[in-house]
Design brief:
- The complex is a heterodimer of chains A (about 700) and B (about 475).
- Chain A contains 16 helices and 33 strands.
- In chain A, the strands form eight sheets. In chain A, strands 20-21-22-23-28-27 form a six-stranded mixed beta sheet, with no helix packed on it.
- The longest helix of chain A is centred in the middle third of the chain and has 30 residues.
- The radius of gyration of chain A is 38 Å and the shape is elongated.
- Chain A starts with 16 loop residues before the first helix and ends in an 11-residue tail after the last helix.
- The N terminus of chain A is likely disordered.
- By secondary structure, chain B is of the alpha+beta class.
- In chain B, α2 crosses α3.
- The longest helix of chain B has about 35 residues.
- The chains are: A alpha+beta (about 700), B alpha+beta (about 475).
- At the A-B interface, α5, α7, α9, α11 and α13 of A face α5 and β10 of B.
- Chain A: This is RMC1 protein.
Chain lengths: ~700, ~475
């Protein structure tokens, strides 16, 4: 391998390891084991190795194994490549196999992005290249490092055709020209380098400089340009006694956490400082500006550690106790004015036990799967989430399981803060909500309120982003702002429909909780939505009404409507109308609502006519100035059905007068289809009662 | 000569059950309560017998609706049968004008002054109030026969009748409505949330009611029970506690509780001093849902600043001092915060809606559906009486219009030109009634109508109220 991977590191203080045992073990995974919680999660293990690892031929004298962090590929190079190179990746499931001439021991081997060009380092002075682009020259070509007397420490691909050589005297940035089988130097920089580190996600190379090695110089690469970021110094735990390299690359990692690049420094316990154990110090490395120490993660233990970053969580493995802890820098910590100190979120747990599948068609005897030795000393850990067992020939990505977390974080508010930041959180959050509403783990209303508020806070943030995006697009300002992107809807956005479908409707239907609690929960959710100024969807109101009606709590419903807690809408007004037969005041409530909507005048007329309140309907329509356009027939029909002759007379006369006013003649036009009513009028009141046309 | 007005007064008030002494010579047994008690036995029997006869006699003309009142020159009698065979009778003397003729006083009874509906309602409320604190007559009989019922009636009415103040009864007594506190949705939801959490923490609480500024915001009780409880709270309990409140935080009660400075909560019923281990945790008992579940409850009224909460707990669980302390420590701080929130929000809303420069209309509004009542005619209620700020004659016109309205189901509008530039307008739309008193010189009917329309547009624009 080109360089030693940052495996589990030795503790600096030799005697400290003995004390480490006390810090870890407790819990250790056994605690949860007794719980009857289905076999899927053993003992609340919240970390797991991926189910489909990459299997490769383990390292041996004829087979060298390399790992490329950029493409996440494992290279198995047999006999210098002469008897075959097999490349397997986590993402690309089809292995790439090829042979190459054995030109000596391979020190480092990597594909460019997209597997276009293969780079192989065999000597300290040069790197060989081989094109994998179809129809391009197949012969190897070589590039020596420019700097005289420099030794190449390694190289990194920054794109499909750009490569950086890191030598002990600086870095050289090249463009590879595969057609010409040559490289063009784009830029170089002289600097003494102890070791380097590459973060492919952010295209940043970190160089360890100075004698002590604790001054780090980052470089950022983007489409042919190389920019030097401001250098920074890692504070060493104790003043070094001699001028020797004091910062090991094994104690440094780089990772993107919540979209920001951090340098993670594993600071071992030192007897001179009064810390209780090792800690991870996070330096925030912005693209512009200086690097700052921002977070300290307290490990409270000593010994050998390794770091991973999964789903924006920093995971620290501890070999002595064979457990891991996780940290979330977004959760509240103790702020001392410049840095935030974090304790681990969950009790230490081991990675979930893992069975190595017995592979190969030869195993027809169906051997039992072999349990994998976790936290083995042959494990090598890469950023952000890779664990490799060189001795067994497996590569895994590490995963965080959210279901076990639910039972480990008792504080529901903190649990929500934690879950809302996770990628695959939606179903877990919804199940937490369901769980807290039903026995035996029913939460108190104030806990439920906290959870709702946290969910709606996230929901509102998304709605606002979406709204301002839409506004920018609509006003045409988007062209002047090319960086504008439609906000991404993450799983943490739990909207009303999610809550309704997965939690609230199920909960109200189960009817196991006392109705008081059911209503309190629904009202709490509506309160929370209102607090975040989110418009409440009609189906939630319907759920409230349904529940109240089921328990004959009409007076309660009445009060809610009186204070407009259930916002006005036509569907709600119609729902109320339908309740009139069991709760008469619903009629008034419905009419009031229609009136407030001010777009439901037709509905109001219909409601009044259906109750034979023809005069009221007419007075209403006249009040809003709509009486010139209404259908005479409709009102006359209703008046006739009311079987009140005087009422019919009044209505008939009203329309005669309207006809006179609008057309100069009291009689109805054929288009109004009122012939039968004219006949009826004549029948009851006589022909002479018809209004005479007024002539001027 | 000099004229003197003598207000109507209570002449007598009695309760009887004809089934208790059906035989001749046992008439006295029918009488369950008689005020004034000093009246001679035979006169009591005579009066009861007369009422019985009137009710019997009128029943022949109207079997379903027996007589409700009897008008005589000097007085008026009101009959009410709240429970089968239990009759309550109230005799009110008509108001009198005392004139002096030749140095001798002459009394002129004003036979038409009293409004039947007003005093019938007062009588009905007497029963409702009795029932709230004692349960039904029948239940008392079941509990311990006539003896127990008599004791309860005596104990209750002896004091209650003194608080009747018949001279100031008016239309509001007919409505016996509830004044609701205007509030924005968010603050209302906060109160909901508070109530639900309190009911959860104090898990023996069965019902809760929430009031602010003597106005109702939430009732967990059913409407009819809340109606009478509201009357008790606003006309009796709250006014009695006005004084210590006005005295502020340094009132004697507070001074004794140095540990509670973080909140202003205090019990209006129950223990006076939570730090005194000997203090009595006795709360009034009330009876609700007497028609079906018949529940007996302890009434805990707790107040912080202008916010009052009634917690009602099952009577079978006597609240202990420990419970009261828990309630005080949980409810006190939260209610204090909530009360200042409501106050703040109320002031903001008032400023937004411009309610401060509300036109000076004098009106009474009542909605039969939710019992919502609003009056700009009445002064703030005092322990003794709620005072109308207009002439009694105008109040009487309001009562007359109300009587007219109650005779028909249809929407109606009545405009009355009263004395000295006063106009009285009554409007009825579906279940709502509005009464407006206008005082403008030289206005005509159309202008009065316009004014009322204006009022409706500003005050009632969010309800369906036909113009």
């Amino acid at each position: 391998m080109g360089r030693e991977p940052p495996g589990p590191a030795e503790d600096e203080a030799p005697g400290a390891a003995a004390g480490a045992g006390a810090a870890g073990r407790e819990g250790g995974g056994e605690e949860g084991e007794g719980r009857a919680r289905g076999g899927a999660e053993a003992g609340g293990c919240y970390l797991a190795l991926c189910a489909r690892p990459v299997h490769f031929e383990k390292a041996n004298p004829v087979n060298c194994v390399f790992f490329d962090e950029a493409n996440k590929q494992v290279f198995a190079v047999r006999s210098g490549g002469a008897t075959g190179v097999v490349v397997k990746g986590l993402e690309d499931r089809n292995p790439i196999s090829f042979r190459m001439e054995d030109k000596g021991e391979v020190k480092c081997i990597k594909f460019s992005l997209g597997n276009k060009i293969l780079a192989v380092q065999r000597t300290l002075k040069s790197v060989d290249f081989l094109n994998f682009i179809p129809d391009s020259p197949q012969l190897e070509y070589t590039q020596e490092c420019k700097t005289k007397n420099a030794n190449i420490l390694g190289f990194c691909w920054t794109s499909s055709t750009e490569i950086v050589f890191i030598t002990d005297q600086g870095i050289e940035f090249y463009q590879v020209l595969p057609e010409k089988r040559s490289l063009k130097l784009l830029k170089n920089q002289s600097i003494n380098v102890n070791w380097y580190m590459y973060c492919p996600e952010s295209s940043v190379i970190l160089l360890s400089t100075t004698v002590l090695g604790n001054v780090l110089q980052p470089f950022y690469f983007k489409s042919g340009t190389m920019s030097k970021l401001s250098k920074f110094e890692i504070e060493l735990p104790a003043a070094p006694k001699s001028s020797k390299l004091s910062l090991s690359e094994r104690d440094i990692a780089m990772a993107t956490i919540y979209g920001q690049l951090y340098v993670l420094y594993l600071r071992h316990h030192s007897r001179t400082s009064n810390s209780t154990g090792a800690e991870v110090v996070l330096y925030h490395l912005p693209r512009e500006g200086s690097c700052k120490k921002t977070h300290i993660l307290k490990l409270n233990r000593t010994g050998k550690f390794a770091l991973n970053v999964v789903d924006n969580l920093v995971i620290v493995h501890h070999q002595d106790t064979e457990t891991s802890v996780i940290f979330d820098i977004k959760l509240k910590g103790e702020f001392d004015g410049s840095t935030t100190i974090h304790q681990f979120v969950l009790p230490p747990r081991s990675i979930q036990p893992y069975q190595i599948p017995v592979a190969g068609p030869a195993s027809v005897t169906s051997q039992a799967p072999v349990p994998c030795k976790l936290y083995s000393s042959s494990w090598i850990v890469f950023q952000p989430d890779i664990i490799i067992s060189a001795s067994e020939g497996y590569l895994w990505s590490l995963q965080v399981k959210l279901e076990p977390v639910v039972n480990l974080l008792v504080d529901k508010g903190k649990l929500m803060d934690f879950l809302l930041q996770r990628k695959e959180c939606k179903m877990v959050i919804l199940s937490v909500c369901s769980q807290m509403l039903s026995e035996p783990e029913r939460g108190s209303l104030s806990v439920i309120a906290t959870v709702f508020d946290k969910l709606n806070h996230e929901y509102k943030k998304y709605l606002e982003a979406e709204q301002s995006y839409t506004m920018v697009v609509e006003t045409g300002l988007s062209r002047s702002n090319p960086l504008l992107k439609r906000p991404v809807r993450t799983q943490a956005v739990i909207d009303q429909s999610d809550m309704y479908t997965h939690v609230l409707s199920v909960f109200t239907e189960k009817k196991e909780a006392p109705h008081k609690f059911t209503i309190a929960v629904l009202m709490e959710y509506i309160r929370s939505l209102n607090q975040f100024q989110i418009a409440v969807q009609h189906y939630l109101y319907e759920l409230v009404i349904k529940t109240l009606v089921q328990h004959n709590l009409f007076y309660m419903l009445h009060q809610f409507l009186q204070y407009h807690v259930l916002s006005d809408s036509k569907p709600l007004a119609c729902l109320l109308l339908s309740l009139e037969s069991i709760y008469p005041p619903a009629h008034q409530l419905s009419l009031d609502m229609l009136k407030r909507l001010s777009t439901a005048n037709d509905e109001i007329v219909e409601v009044l006519l259906s109750k034979h309140q023809v005069l009221a309907a007419l007075r209403f329509i006249r009040g809003i100035g709509g009486h010139d356009s209404i259908s005479a027939r409709k009102f006359l029909d209703a008046a006739k059905q009311a079987e009140d002759e005087m009422l019919f007379y009044t209505i008939f006369r009203f329309f005669e007068q309207r006809n006179q006013r609008l057309r100069g003649n009291p009689s109805f036009t054929p288009g109004e289809h009122c012939e039968e009513h004219v006949t009826f009028f004549k029948q009851v009141f006589g022909e002479q009662a018809l209004m005479k046309p007024t002539t001027f | 000569g000099q004229e003197k007005q003598l207000a109507p007064t209570l002449l007598s008030f009695f309760i009887y059950n004809p089934k208790l002494g059906p035989k001749e010579g046992e008439e006295e047994k029918k009488i369950l309560f008689y005020h004034p008690n000093e009246v001679e036995k035979n006169e009591k029997i005579r009066n009861v017998g007369l009422c019985e006869a009137i009710v019997q006699f009128t029943r022949t003309f109207s079997p379903t609706k027996p007589a409700k009142s009897l008008h005589t020159q000097k007085n008026r009698q009101f009959f009410h049968e709240p429970e089968e065979n239990f009759w309550m009778v109230m005799v009110v003397r008509n108001p009198i004008i005392e004139k002096h003729k030749d140095g001798k006083p002459v009394y002129e009874y004003q036979e038409e002054e009293l409004l039947d509906k007003v005093y019938s309602s007062v009588l009905q409320q007497c029963y409702s109030m009795y029932k709230l604190f004692n349960g039904t007559f029948l239940r008392a009989m079941e509990d311990g026969g006539v003896k127990v019922l008599k004791e309860r009636l005596e104990k209750f009415f002896h004091r209650y009748l003194q608080t009747l103040h018949l001279q100031s009864c008016d239309l509001l007594d007919v409505f016996c409505g509830i004044s609701f506190f205007p509030l924005d949705k968010m603050t209302y939801l906060k109160i909901q949330s508070f109530i639900n959490r309190m009911e959860e923490s104090l898990n023996i609480v069965k019902y809760t009611a929430f009031l602010y500024n003597d106005q109702l915001i939430w009732s967990g009780l059913e409407q009819d029970d809340m109606r009478i409880l509201y009357k008790y709270l606003t006309t009796s309990l709250f006014p009695r506690h006005m004084e210590p409140e006005l005295a502020g935080r340094d009132s004697p009660i507070r001074a004794e509780m140095p540990g509670n400075l973080q909140h202003y909560g205090r019990f209006l019923t129950g223990p006076l001093n939570l730090n005194d281990p000997e203090t009595k945790c006795r709360f009034p008992k009330i009876f609700v849902n007497t028609d079906d579940t018949y529940e007996e409850l302890h009434l805990i009224v707790y107040k912080a600043m202008s916010a009052a909460v009634c917690f009602m707990i099952d009577a079978s669980i006597p609240p202990t001092l420990e419970f009261c302390r828990k309630l005080d420590s949980i409810v006190g701080p939260q209610l204090t915060v909530l009360a200042s929130d409501i106050c703040e929000q109320y002031n903001i809303n008032k400023r937004i809606s411009g309610a401060e420069k509300e036109p000076q209309f004098k009106f009474i509004y009542f909605n039969h559906m939710n019992l919502a009542e609003k009056s700009t005619i009445h002064m703030r209620k005092t322990p003794s009486v709620s005072l109308a700020s207009v002439h009694p004659d105008l109040m009487k016109i309001l009562g007359d219009i109300n009587s007219d309205f109650s005779r028909v189901d249809e929407d109606e509008e009545i405009i009355v030109k009263a004395m000295s530039d006063y106009w009285v307008v009554g409007k009825k739309s579906d279940q709502r009634e509005l009464y407006v008193i206008l005082n403008q010189k030289n206005v005509n009917l159309i202008e009065v109508n316009e004014e009322v329309k204006k009022l409706c547009a500003t005050q009632f624009n969010n309800i369906f109220f036909l113009d």
